[in-house]
Fold this protein.
Amino acid sequence: MGTMHWEFSVTGGNFSGAGEAASKIKNILKKLGIAYEVIRRVSIASYEAEMNITAYADEGKLLVDIDPLEINITASDRGPGIPDIDKAMQEGFSTATPAIREMGFGAGMGLPNIQRATDWMVINSTVGKGTEIKFKIYLKT
Amino acid sequence: MKREELGGLLSATVLLDSGYEPEGGYDTVCACDMMSELLASMNQTGQNSRGVLLLTNLTNPQVVRTSEMVDIRLVIFLRGKKPAPETIALARSCGISIMTTPHTMFSSCGILHAEKLHDIQTHNRDV
């Protein structure tokens, strides 16, 4: 298996479609025969990342790269950005609107959940421009 | 425990039957209204999701989408709530069964706990 690449666009505010990209990623991994535990971790992290774009940004995308050793995902968006990343990483801290909370999100667990589910994660953000979250999960046997 | 038996204990109505029954039956409960809590719990179990059911008061499509992400195949809505058609439609496409029980979260958990079903935090099935 060489390196495979996929790209999925995510529309900000489209709550009814939120999770479609993560669902597609999950189905791709299943078809590739990736280990169950890895699929679940990728699903959790990519779904949380997609929910963040849906909830906070104007638009964004999930880029997925799979090589024989690891799965790399970049969730990038055009949006308000994160003023204080350390604070955003604190469990319980949230700037979610009531609409987001009605969906069962906005408890301030999204970014910590991504970190817990992945082997490596980094956030770059510029206020007023957007955010990029990169994460990696190793294809351990 | 088989789905039909669970439904009987909870006086539940089947709204959508995917036909799926986990090998060994349902034995673990995640009772949760926060979807990120559900994702966090399922991430920490490190185990297969077969046999896990979700009890929740939320009825929006994200409940089904979140369940799909962590391979939960049975969702039971509480206090007689019935989800919108789009929630049912998504569940159908994901192969997830839907039931609704007149019981509250507290009562439902009590009934299932008395039947020796496990909490998600102590979920320890073999993959």
